Amino acid sequence: MVKVWWLKLMIKIKINGKDLEVKPKTSIIEVADQVGIDIPRFCYHKKLSVAANCRMCLVEVKNFAKPLPACATQVM
Amino acid sequence: MEKGRQNKAFEKKETFPICLRTSHLDDSASLKTYLDIGGYQQIQRILREKISPEKLIEEIKISGLRGRGGAGFPTGIKWSFIQNDSPGTKYIVCNSDEGEPGTFKDREIIKNNPHQIIEGMTIAAYIMGAQVGYNYIHGEIWEEYESFENALAEAKKANFLGKSICGFNFDFELFAFHGYGAYICGEETALIESIEGKKGQPRFKPPFPATYGIYGRPTNVNNTETYASIPWIIQNGGESFANIGVENSGGTKIFSVSGHVENPGNYEIPLGMPFNELLKLAGGVWKGRTLKAVIPGGPSTPVLPASEIMKTTLDYDGLKNAGSSVGAGSLIVMDDTTCMVSTLKRLSYFFYEESCGQCTPCREGTGWVYRVIKRIVEGKGKPEDMELLQDVSQKISGRTICALGDAAAVPVLSFIKYFKSEFEYFIKNGKSMVAKTHD
Fold first, then answer.
1. Residue B360 and residue A55: Cβ atoms within 8 Å?
2. What distance in Å separates the CA atoms of residue B204 and residue B212, rounded to the nearest whole number?
3. DSSP three-state, residue B156
4. Does the CB of B396 have a partner CB in chain A at under 8 Å?
5. What are phi and psi for residue B4, nearest 5 degrees?
6. Category of B70 on φ-ψ map: left (φ > 0), alpha (ψ -120 to 50) or beta
7. Which partner from A26, B29, B101, B314 sits 20 to 30 angstroms from B49, CA to CA?
């Protein structure tokens, strides 16, 4: 079995009640795309820089009062 | 405007003008006047005695000075975010881009007391180790811009700015930057973009300007009034500044009183003054009419009806408990002939016009809010329009990059909260509840 060094750094998160282990420094929208959770978006594209101004991909994040853009928020 | 009319509070013995302390003097903007009242003494004392930045920040923290631009963030804490000894260029920016309807305090400080801003910014630069400063002046005020440029030239000539200030080992360059009059450039990251020469649109935060500001360097942005308070605090100590105001709200604040009063103008009052005292200073409601409502801090703060505002004190906690906020201190007084629906139409038109168009909720939402209120005023309102207005406003609020989205939603929600019957009457009957309407 191949051991990868960053396995130790994996972050445990929960999206829509689903437990996930993801690489650090990835955005919420990337994670959601990988596991097949659909977050609607207009201005985000993985080959473009993040603008975060269409506000279509706003998601509720625990411990934050306001919804955050999934494209500009990194998992933590 | 005639002298002495602007700062009526000065005539009362119990008040202490700080930012407008020269406005009753002749030739108030000149360097000579400022030197006569003890100006530029503090920066020289700091440089001579080599007072450490930590000590100065401690003094400002004691003073309880809070950001005067609207958010009310404690200045001492904000200034400790930027490390004095970190390498590279750092910037100090003064935000004089006041563009909200009813605000006219910064322009008066710039016009009458520009040297106090310059000294305050120089002290700020010393505390945060900055080398370059900008004063971003609103695009529609030419006279004040020229006044500030003159003051800069005078200060540079007298060696209060530039290389080795007053012969000490400290350099600070200050420039005036004339904007083009966009309301959005009063938002600090949009202001930074504008200084960089780009389109004035707010940046996504984080990173905040304290780490990534002008050209990616640490930048501190504060309001004009905040900087203008600094020399007085350093001179008289934080304690005496805090004692002027009340708990949690130290010092004085300029309230720009406008609307239906006998003597509109700028009043620098100690924070914690009851509202009816300020109303008395401003000569009361005009033509002997009764008070209907007051917007205490500019259109981005919630409106308060007469019954609420009359028992409120003008300070951060007092207004917060009443459900509003100090904002920029642009107090708009409305008498009983004011039609709240038409007033809201004018305010929502302002936000619709000034939305930068970056975030979808604000760009589309402000337009919808304006169009719906316009159709109510034209007598074509539908019964479901009230709910529609509230729904659209709630969907703008908290979902945009900058605070302008929240600001645009505030008047709509607060006007409907307190004056619901007036809106319902207008929709039902196609005309205003009060006799006279104005646009």
1. yes
2. 11
3. helix
4. no
5. 80, -20
6. left
7. B29
